[in-house]
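Proteins fold. Shown next:

***
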Amino acid sequence: MIEPIRALRPRSTELLRGDLRDVSLVSLLQLAQVEAVSGWLRVEGRGEIALLKGHVGSVVCGRLSGVEALRELAFHDRGRFVLARGEPAGDRCGDNVTFALMDAYRLRDEWKRLADAVLRRVDERPWKPTGGPFDPIVLELDGQRTLSELVDPDLGIATLVIDAALDALRLGAIERVPAAQRRPPALAAVDTEDIDVMVERGRELLRRGDLDAAEQLLRRALTRRPGDRVIQQNLRALARRRTATDAEDHR
């Protein structure tokens, strides 16, 4: 059910709110175009699209922007959305909007095939870091857990990880593990030492300034050891480091 919403920003007019499970992002963008809406379409907890007379303007999703951000937002088929009329800054419409939306549907189909895949690194083909979000995930490909267990959708990088995984499979750097070679779930449990190694690796990435990779590892460790104070302290330190870095970038 779509309902009126509270104003998102000063001098904005409330239009709609709802859930992407009921109304897709593409349908909302089509509605905004028909009604020539200028304002904002926000997916709560993920990102925001600026609308310029019905056309897509600037887009942000986590630390992504532009086409990558729009693709990430369209990839997810659930989440609360709010739509408001107003006057967003800027007057330039986004490029490759149609490509981003179509590519999001492609990646949804790819994810259906990849989510439950158990992957492992190929020893003969050492992994060469790319600087992308798939690097820390490759380190966790133990041949026992599915890719969906290793990818945190809340980080807003699912689409980048999917394409990177597909590339790695094509290049033979990683491979699928046949079902017959997987251990039963009870034997695949990760022990305390493995989590400690993960936390230490995250701390090392933090010291080197690779904040995105550090956050992925630390959050993954926290899901496997909820309430751990050491992990929480490191995540708070990372958040402070990110805030300080962002402040310096805006000077």
